[in-house]
Amino acid sequence: MKKLFLIFSLLSVSLAQAQNASISCHFSMASQDTCIIRLHKYYISEYEPTVIALLKDNNCSFSLTVPNPCIAELMYNKQSVNLWLEPNDNMQLNIAYDSLYKAITIQGSGIVPNEFLKQFYKTFKNDFDKDAVKQRMLSTGIDKYENYLFAQRKLQMDFYKNYKEKDKFSAGFNTYVTNLIKYNYYYQLQAYPIINANESKSILTVTPLPALLLEEVTPTLANNDEALNCETYRNFLYYYVVYNTSRLNNFNKFNDNSISMEKKMAFTNQTLNNKANVYFMANYLNENVDNVSPYTARHIYGLLSYNEKNGDYTRLLKAKCDKRMRMKVPDDKSTASSSATSGPQEGVKIMGTDGKYFTFEDLKGKVVYVDFWASWCGPCRSMFPFSKELHKKFTPKQLKNVVFLYISIDKTEEIWKRAIEQNGLGDFKNGLVPGDWSSEIVKYFQINSIPRYMLIDKKGTIVDMNAKRPSEEAVFDDIINLIDK
Q: What kind and span of H or E run contains 196?
């Protein structure tokens, strides 16, 4: 037994050591007393794990936990360079000047891939520098620009395939480099119309790319979890969602940040899976949460939490999102006018599945839990299972006093009824106010994002314009309290 325990202990130590890597730095001259390494784990810079080392006699060293190959960002004196780092690497960096940009030589393990990256970026610097890329986009027509991208991609692949020490690359590094080159082409292609459209506020539409250029841009290309360690893939994800959301909006630019985020997240939820889905949602929410309504912040943060099952991003973004969700914004467009909050007016007519119209006035005497949705809205559909479970929590007696009302803003009756059947909503009360974002009910309640929930008491008064989602346990108590009144 002791022998087995010893073997297990040695194995545990071996596995732990296999996740370690070390980097030592020597500066021929140094003006700063600290050096920093940031490991790319979450791919959102402000949340990445960092290690700080003190310089002594122009030297410093790092011991890092590296379970998987990754990019490590070495930072010194307001400068930074990226290093490819793998488990068990032991690198010694010699920096000839007080600058990371002038002369770095690498010794020890890790020298081959990092020397390649140094030569690769030196050769193709302007193809990866964002400022240079942007200027080229703004000064070149799309056909000429695509030809340039195509030619440069070939040159980059030839450089990689013909590199003298390519046979020493690890499988992980080979994958990284091919993704770096491949996604740089597709990212810039989709970024071209967006960057040109955003150059001026007077430009109200995005010029679509020729369909031929997008033949290879598919959901399969977009869903590549192992490429997340590559910046060009993350850039590609951003413009893939932005361009396609623009396409779904008839290439009209959004003038409301909340609607823009809701539609991007709806597309993301429909198209991206697994790590790509969670990363994009977290990164976009992190960058834009301060520019959207508290309701949208709460909705998207809840959706992120649901998608990653309360994982790392949910934890990391909690404080930032909580701050926005608690904020009261008097001019927030997600809050309807005072006339609407006092009680729904008879003028808002809703078509039932039988073709007859009804109004909120017809539902007086019962508590109404309203779910505004549409067939094309992925986040709306993701809430339906929770809504059905919520319905089951009520007793038959309680259900006589509450109405679950699903109001669709789909464009046509045919699309709406097909979506009711597909989503199993036939046992609930359904209504349609056609017209998408131009529908009468959207304008009346100033709805700028869906799903949107609303609670109405037995007197017909709206008691909560932004009611809790069905996935939140507290909504059951909110409804029960209104039933008991």
A: helix 171-197
